[in-house]
Amino acid sequence: MFSKKYYQIIFIFFVSLGMSIVMSGIITAVNTGLEGNFFYRWFMAWIVAFPLAFIAGNIFAPISRKLTDGLTKS
Predict the structure, then answer these.
(1) What was the pLDDT predicted at 18?
(2) How far apart are CA 74 and CA 69, in angstroms?
(3) Contact by Cβ (8 Å): 24, 49
(4) pTM for the model
(5) pLDDT by residue (tens digit) across 11-61?
(6) CA–CA separation, 55 vs 74, rounded Å?
(7) Would you tell me how many other CB atoms lie within 10 Å of the CB of residue 14?
(8) How far apart are CA 48 and CA 36, in angstroms?
């Protein structure tokens, strides 16, 4: 188990993992189709997408939290 102080980074890890798997799969299917070596192409796209999604998540999570706090009432 991890300490609660790692909550944000672990949360972003799992969100970026799931989103990068889905998005790279859909974009790969739309751009190149499902035939042939689809899973290899999907995996290669995901290898690039996941680190970028993780970095973007760490950049945009605090911004998104501030915007959401400003738009919602307690």
Answers:
(1) 97
(2) 9
(3) yes
(4) 0.85
(5) 999 999 999 999 999 999 999 999 999 999 999 999 999 999 999 999 999
(6) 29
(7) 10
(8) 20
- Tokens for 54, please give them: 């993780």
Q: d(Cα 44, Cα 12) in Å, to the nearest integer?
A: 21
Residue 4: both structure tokens together: 């609660």
Q: What is the DSSP letter of 6?
A: G
Q: Is there a contact between 20 and 46 (Cβ–Cβ < 8 Å)? A: yes
Q: Is 35 helix (H, G, I), strand (E, B) or coil?
A: coil
CA distance readout (Å), 6 to 42, 47, 56: 30, 24, 17
Check if the beta carbon of residue 22 is closer than 8 Å to that of residue 40: no
How far is the C-alpha of 44 from the C-alpha of 13, rounded, in Å?
19
